[in-house]
Amino acid sequence: MGGFILYFILLLIIPLWAQFKLKRTYKKFSKIRSTSGRTGAEVARIILDENGLHDVKVVESRGMLSDHYNPMTKTVALSPHNYHEASVAGTAVAAHEVGHAIQDAKDYAFLRFRHRMVPLVNISSNASWIFIMIGIFSAMTEMLLLGIILLAIGVVFQFVTLPVEFNASNRAMDQLVSTGIIRNTEEKSAKKVLNAAAMTYVVATAVAVLELLRLLLIYTSMNRS
Asked: What residue ranges carry the coiled-coil annotation (predicted)?
């Protein structure tokens, strides 16, 4: 019993720690003005134009850290601070989202695969726990197995997300350096912001894998009994 309690505590604490680290790192470097003096929107526009992506729009989104790239509408959406302010954090985040736009333009395989998985994951993630709960409480191993399979689709999605995010960050740093938007002294700071963001994806994947393994152990135990 103690082991299960510790397990669930870890499942809660580790993701919260990753989110806390991201927010703390972002907050720190969002207060440091970039030497270029360019807002996140300007940084995104410069990198997009440098790569011939004149059709991709840069728009403002709502909410803190709501930054994302939408491949359907070809838009880079930046949260209010990143869009309007000239900070090291905003510069790094804007370049990262443009990194996704460059992936899209270059037909990056992992990005394409992830996009194709989205409709399936939306269905499986909602349905998986229904079958898992039914399987556990009614001792129906077939239902539990179906729930595990549906949950495994989401785990695969998490794994595919990792190279997409790391590659976008690598592209971001390359673009920031090659365009001269950041100086040598800012490279470390920009990397810290991107690494903190990447850690949240790593943790999410690790937690998903642990939960999948736990359910597989439950399934095996139910079959034996």
From this structure: none
